Amino acid sequence: NTEHSFPMDxxxxxxxxxxxxxxxxxIAVRFxxxxxxxxxxxxxxxxxxxYLRSLGVQANSVVGISMERSLEL
Length: 73
Description:
The chain is α+β, with helices and mostly antiparallel strands. It has helices spanning 12-22, 38-54; strands spanning 27-31, 34-37.
């Protein structure tokens, strides 16, 4: 049972940062035989954010991402 309601007034990155502060070593994502902790997920989210900013993406921009199903997605 993985159903859970989330606050609608916070962006996903804020929710991840709050979870990192509470349980950084807990498993955040599993895909096949791979997994990421909340700390690792946060590092990857920040790397993507910095990369997008370097391309000129600004706040409230819509960015499409197309990837094969994987842990990186």
